[in-house]
Specification:
By secondary structure, the protein is mainly β. The protein has one helix at about 10-15, and strands at about 20, 35-40, 45-50, 55-65, 70-75, 80, 95-100, 105-110, 115, 125, 130-135, 145-150, 160-165, 175-180, 185-190, 195-200, 215, 230, 235, 245, 255-260, 265-270, 275, 280-285, 290-295, 310-315, 320-330, 335-345, 355, 370-380, 380-385, 405-410, 420-425, 440-445, 445-450, 455-460. It has two domains: about 10-150, Sandwich (Immunoglobulin-like), CATH 2.60.40; about 160-460, Kelch-type beta propeller (Neuraminidase). It contains one helix and 36 strands.
Length: about 475
């Protein structure tokens, strides 16, 4: 980076003669002529060191592709940040950064008192701490100040290592739904029309699943596929569409009616609302008494009953906001996995409605057409997995050969997806039980994969050496 000091006052006096360094942005005036419009980084090559079994030291390199790192530019709060967290082992001390902007860009990093002229695509940035950028308009007076962050996982999060947990004794046959609450796994199963639940304490080493227990208390059978977590309780519809709740203290076995409204499907939940549909709109409620419309377009692309899966997580930019993503198979579309998203807030003015994400079926950024799709939020990133669809010939369909072979990840809350080809892999054993339904959840710091037949795998994140 060019170290040529020049004060802001001098820039204002010299007009267009801006060459190097600014020490103050006091009394700055922000205009549209001072804005960063795009932001990216080059490939990040990191040298790592290891010791062989003989005690000899050796070095090797690993590379993160810059094209796989996505940034959000928050123009309201003047923040630039990576959407996903990079693995813990990545060296962020010298990362070449590129941008497009209106105005001239200056940078100030750790230990610097002045801003220095920054050359896009040539100069490197030390992202081990927040970086500051100052954009100066051609008049030398109007400016905008940004902070930039490149997030890195606080624990090793680039590789999953699987152990067979089938010895935990899960009794399971047929379709099921797996959820996690307070690091306890709950596996709900159809059980021939009389749904059951088994639990396992994921924090306890050597813990085993409880024997399947019947779900009791509903006027009609609980639809185990609809079970959703909200506010520390389980919610589900019975066969008549009435809403029931169960407390974790009962092991999710005792169900009590909480609403008479006839819903056609429970969809998702976040920190503020439970979402359902009556067939005419998506409805949201915070108290289960008052339900308000939260979306009424593209309803034909809602996930079919029994296929919806969702995650909700805190926004990086505002702890009062939640990002919610929902997927499943749509009855109206035999070529795509339905993806819906929204930003949720307790404040009605900030609470957005649901949006359906649609891609051309040939678009590589679309989530592949998958059966039994599952969503996970792990290591600060969003992942999806799924099996082969009945229509394997459909464009963008997951083939039998690729069923449960890859994770897919999205860095923009479900809008665009890419296949994960290294590090984050699924257990090989999943493909040994052809067609057996699969569910997934995160509990006790691990990823858990549950498959019909009582097969269970536990995935542990650690750095591949």
């Amino acid at each position: 980076m060019k170290q040529i000091p020049l004060k802001l006052a001098a820039i204002a006096a010299a007009g267009l003669m801006m060459t190097a360094c600014i020490s103050s942005e006091d009394d700055a005036v922000t205009t549209q002529e001072t804005v960063i419009t795009s932001y990216a980084v080059s490939d990040i090559v990191t040298t790592l060191y290891t010791t062989s079994s003989t005690g000899a030291d050796s070095a090797y390199t690993r590379t993160i592709s810059g094209s796989d790192i996505y940034f959000n530019i928050d123009q309201v709060n003047n923040r630039i940040y990576s959407i996903d967290s990079l693995p813990q082992w990545v060296d962020l001390s010298r990362v070449v950064t590129s941008f497009t902007s209106y105005g001239t860009v200056y940078c100030r990093q750790r230990g610097q008192s002045d801003f220095f002229y920054f050359t896009s695509g040539e100069d490197s940035v030390d992202y081990t701490q927040k970086v500051e950028f100052l954009v100066v308009a051609t008049d030398g007076v109007s400016t905008r100040h940004y902070t930039a962050e490149l997030y890195k996982a606080t624990s090793a999060s680039d590789s999953l290592y699987w152990s067979d947990a089938s010895a935990a004794g899960l009794q399971l046959a047929g379709r099921h739904r797996t959820l996690s609450l307070n690091d306890v796994l709950y596996v709900f199963a159809e059980n021939g029309g009389s749904p059951t639940v088994s639990t396992l304490d994921a924090k306890t080493s050597g813990a085993v699943f409880t024997a399947p227990a019947l779900l009791k208390g509903a006027a009609a059978a609980i639809d185990y596929r609809s079970i959703t977590l909200f506010g520390g309780r389980f919610y589900a519809l019975d066969a008549n569409g009435a809403l029931y709740a169960a407390q974790p203290e009962s092991g999710a076995t005792a169900w009590t009616k909480v609403a008479d409204t006839a819903f056609t499907q429970l969809l998702a939940a976040d920190a503020y609302y439970l979402y359902a549909t009556d067939g005419t709109a998506i409805l949201a409620s915070s108290d289960l008494k008052t339900w308000t419309e939260n979306g009424n377009t593209s309803l034909q692309y809602l996930p079919q009953a029994g296929t919806a899966t969702s995650v909700a997580y805190e926004s990086r930019t505002n702890s009062a906001l939640q990002q919610v993503v929902m997927t499943g198979l749509s009855a109206a579309d035999g070529a795509q996995t339905a993806v819906w998203m929204k930003t949720a807030a307790q404040d009605a003015e900030s609470n957005q409605t649901w949006s359906c994400i649609r891609h051309d079926v040939s678009d590589a950024r679309a989530l592949p057409y998958m059966a039994d799709v599952q969503l996970l939020r792990f290591g600060g990133n969003l992942y999806a997995l799924g099996g082969a669809t009945p229509d394997a010939a459909a464009e963008n369909a997951v083939s039998a050969a690729d069923a449960y072979k890859y994770f897919y990840t999205s860095g923009d809350h479900g809008i665009n997806w890419r296949r994960v080809t290294s590090g984050m892999r699924l257990p090989d054993g999943l493909r040994e039980h052809d067609g057996a339904p699969v569910t997934a959840a995160v509990a006790g710091g691990h990823v858990w994969i549950v498959q019909s037949g009582g097969y269970v795998w536990r995935g542990t994140i650690s750095s591949a050496q």
